[in-house]
Write a structure and sequence with these properties.
It is a single chain. The protein is mostly beta strands. Helix content is 1%, strand content 37%. Strands 3, 4, 6, 7, 10, 11, 13, 16 and 17 form a 9-stranded mixed sheet that branches. The longest helix is centred in the middle third of the chain and has 4 residues.
Length: 267
């Protein structure tokens, strides 16, 4: 993910990979990770203390200052890449500049910490370990290594939108939010409420930024507008519609007043 990135479909945050550049230095069930799903990740340039970002809205549960370690938990149910929807719990470690405290809430996309060497670490990196569920038990396994109950591989947890996977591609099976099968896709309508004066329209293949706009829809003029959704595009942030004046085009819907319904909605 990149700094400030938000990802939500049907009101549920998608659990994103917290790293912009991801080089795995030690994978799950290897070396000091025996019996766990813990992963060590460095950034693009070895030795650089890169920031990593909150994969969903998280609350700090507990800190371990001696190792730059923080236990986090989602504030609401989130969507994981293996289809799980529910609470997630995770641990990050080795942040030398760690300033988290119990009760701190970090919104999705905000800085969560920095890669570092605090505690038992060889080289600058972030150790991350994730589980599905609200169980915060942190215990030693049969190898004497701490872990959660119900831990999952990183690629079972995360969507890798805007993450540059630099190695271990044989180890990971990345999933992206654009590949999510949205429930009831093919029956959805996007509804633009009547209090909105204008809504930008884009060509289907163009990036949805102001300079690429090809025109405006005017919901207030028609007391609201509803369009059938042919497909979700741009990782779910836009949808493809058919209009009278612009033909087949797309509009931006992520974090907007647009309402998605099953079937046509009459304002």
């Amino acid at each position: 993910m990149k700094k400030g990135e938000k990802s939500k479909i049907d009101g549920i945050e998608n659990f994103l990979c917290p790293f912009t550049d991801m080089y795995i230095t030690q994978g799950a069930n290897e070396g000091t990770h025996r019996g766990t799903m813990g992963v060590d990740v460095r950034g693009k340039v070895s030795g650089t203390r890169y920031a990593y970002y909150s994969p969903c809205t998280l609350k700090c549960i507990k800190t371990y200052p001696e190792s730059g370690q923080v236990m986090w938990q989602s504030t609401k149910a989130v969507r994981c890449s293996n289809g799980y929807i529910g609470i997630v719990t995770l641990m990050t470690a080795h942040d030398d500049s760690m300033n988290a405290y119990p009760g701190l809430v970090v919104p999705q996309g905000n800085k969560l910490g920095n890669m570092g060497t605090k505690g038992n670490a060889t080289g600058v990196h972030c150790h991350i370990e994730c589980s599905q569920g609200s169980d915060t038990s942190w215990f030693k396994n049969k190898y004497g290594i701490y872990m959660f109950n119900n831990e999952k591989d990183l690629d079972s947890m995360c969507y890798f939108d805007h993450t540059n996977i630099m190695n271990r591609k044989e180890y990971l099976k990345p999933v992206y939010t654009s590949s999510i099968k949205v429930e009831n896709e093919g029956k959805n309508y996007v509804n633009l409420p009547p209090h909105i004066d204008t809504w930008r329209v884009y060509r289907v293949k163009d990036t949805p930024v102001k300079r690429n706009s090809i025109g405006l829809l005017r919901p207030s003029k028609f007391k609201g507008l509803s369009y059938y959704i042919y497909s979700y595009l741009d990782h779910g942030s836009t949808c493809e519609i058919q209009t009278r004046d612009y033909g087949r085009c797309k509009i931006y819907i992520k974090d907007t007043p647009a309402v998605i319904t099953i079937g046509y909605y009459k304002y």
